[in-house]
């Protein structure tokens, strides 16, 4: 028969081991990178991908306007639009209509 202090020590070690395993299991399920957070991370990833696609479209639109303003070959329509919009100029034969 074993003396009782060894049994108490073994039970303490087993109890601590069980507590550590339960804690690890809790982190697997509810931790910052656990199963519960995984669904939220997937939703955020899809949202960020949609935002990125929208930003790519906006970037392409802006890049097109920059290309049209190339100093060697300026698009006259865009130059006229920018002059009228930014400097509030108009030719004498043009009629300005404000649209609310």
From TrEMBL:
Keyword Membrane belongs to the record: yes
Ranges that cross the membrane: 12-39
Domain of life of the source: Bacteria
Keyword annotations of the record: Membrane, Transmembrane, Transmembrane helix
Protein name (Swiss-Prot/TrEMBL): Septum formation initiator
Organism of this sequence: Novosphingobium pentaromativorans US6-1
Upper lineage: Bacteria, Pseudomonadati, Pseudomonadota, Alphaproteobacteria, Sphingomonadales
């Amino acid at each position: 028969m074993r003396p009782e202090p060894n049994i108490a020590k073994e039970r303490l070690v087993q109890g601590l081991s069980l507590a550590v395993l339960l804690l690890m299991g809790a982190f697997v399920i509810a931790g910052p990178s656990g199963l519960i957070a995984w669904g939220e991370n997937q939703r955020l990833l899809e949202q960020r991908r949609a935002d990125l696609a929208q930003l790519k479209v906006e970037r392409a639109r802006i890049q097109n306007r920059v290309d049209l303003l190339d100093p060697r070959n300026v698009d006259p329509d865009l130059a006229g639009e920018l002059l009228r919009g930014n400097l509030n100029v108009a030719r004498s034969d043009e009629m300005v209509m404000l649209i609310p």
